[in-house]
Amino acid sequence: MKKTRGFTLAEVLITLAIIGIVAAITLPSLLVNVNEKAWDAQKKALHARLAQAIGQMNTLGGYGTYTEDEEGTATEDTAAESFILDAMSKVYKINNVCGPDKLSSCGIPSKITTLDAVSEINFPSKMSELNAKLLNEINHSPEKDGKMADTKASAFETVNGESIAVFYNPSCGSNTTFANYAQDKMCVNFIYDLNSNEGPNQVGKDIGFITVFGNKNPVVVAPVPHNKDYMSAVPQYSEAEGTPDASSVCKIMAEDLRLPDINELAALFINAPLINLGENKSLYWSSSVFSVGSSGTAWRLYFADGGRARTARSGAHNVRCIKR
After folding, report:
1. Cis link prior to 235 (omega < 30° from 0)?
2. Per-residue confidence at 143, pLDDT binned at 50, 70, 90?
3. 9 or 26: which leads in pLDDT
4. Which has the closest alpha carbon to 274: 217, 212, 214, 192?
5. Shortest CA distance to 316 belongs to which of 234, 245, 240, 239?
6. pLDDT-derived band at 311, boundaries 50, 70, 90
7. How is the chain split into domains, by residue range?
8. Which of 100, 164, 214, 215 is deepest in the core (most CB within 10 A)?
C-alpha cells in the first residue's frame, strides 16, 4: 500500500513565517495605494460639489463684518463664519459650523504635514497664517487699493465626513482678467481634511485645498501639486529640438502630470506654505497662453508678491506640475 507523506510541523511553520514576512512587506504599500485612490476619488467629488454650490450663489463678496482699530487689530470679525452660515449653508448640506478659535470642533487638525513630508506646521487660523504675502500692500490694481483683511478662518463639516476650513475675503474683485495680483481675485480658500483627525493629515493625501477666484462668474480650482522638485529655468515655448519647455516638462516627468493654468497656479501661490513652494521668490509658468508662437506671450506668476502678468514665451521661468 502506497503511503502519502504530509507536511511536517516545521515545514508548516516555515511556510507561515514566509507568508507573514511577505505580507508585512507588501500589505502597507497596497493599503497606501488603496487609500490614495480613494482619496483621489473623494477629492474630485468634493471639488465638483463645492463648484456646483459656489455657482448657485449670486455674489461671493460682502458677507459678515470686519473692522480694525487704529493699530490694525481686528475688533470685529464675522466674515468667514457669516459666509458659511449666510451663503454656503443655503446651497450646500452642512452638518456643523465652527467659528474662529473653535476649528477643532469641526475636525480640523491642529497640525498638518507639508506636501514634501519635510515639515509639520500649525494649521493656519487666519489669512496671515495661511500666507503672509496675502496681506501685501496692493497699489497697482484697478479694482482694489490697499491690502486684504486678515480675517480669521471658520470651518464646517460635510454630510460626507469631510472637515473644511474657510478663509474668506469679503472684498474680492472680479476674475475677468489675469493681470495684477492673485490675492485681489481670491474670494474663498477652502482647506479640507477628507477624514477628519484620522490621519495622516498630510497635504497631497487627506489634506488639500480648493480656491475660488472672482466675485461674479467665479472660477473654482482644486490643483493637486506634484510632490517632487520643479524643473527650473525653462522657456514656456522652445523651438530648439530636444529642448524641454514648460508645456512639455510635466509630461517628461510623469504621464499623469500637467502644467497648471493661471488660476491653478494662483491657488498654489495662496497655499504655498502648505507645499513649501515659492520661498525662493521665483517666477512660475502657467499653461495659460495669451498669444501663440515662439514670439508670443504666456501668463506667469511671481511668488514673491502674487503678481500675475504675461511675458515672452521664450523667457526662462520655473515650473511646478500638478496631477491631471
Report:
1. no
2. very low
3. 9
4. 192
5. 234
6. very high
7. 32-65+76-221, 234-323
8. 164
Sign of the torsion formed by the C-alpha atoms of 301, 305, 309 and 311:
negative
Q: Within the chain, how many helices (H) and strands (E) appear? A: 8, 18
Residues composing the chain: 324
Q: Where are the beta strands (DSSP E) in the chain?
A: 66-68, 74-77, 94-98, 111-113, 120-122, 154-158, 163-168, 180-181, 186-193, 207-213, 219-221, 234-235, 257-258, 283-289, 297-302, 307-312, 316-317, 322-323
* All cell numbers assigned to 298: 504666456
φ, ψ of residue 308 to 5 degrees: the values are: -120, 135
Three-state SS for 218? Answer: coil
What's the CA gap between 100 and 126, in Å, rounded? 9
Instruction: Kindly give the residue spans of alpha helices, DSSP state H, lying in 254-309.
Output: 262-270, 272-275
Each residue's pLDDT tens digit, 197-222: 788 999 999 999 999 999 888 999 99
Cell of residue 40, nine digits: 483621489
Residue 193's DSSP bridge partners are 163, 207
Q: Alpha helix locations (H) across the chain?
A: 9-55, 79-83, 89-91, 127-130, 182-185, 246-253, 262-270, 272-275
- Distance (Å, whole) CA 307 – CA 270: 12
Task: For 211-238, give one letter per residue: b (16+ CB within 10 A) or e.
Answer: bbbbbeebbbbbbbbbbeebbeebbbbb
Neighbours of 200 (CB within 10 A): 13
pTM of the model: 0.87
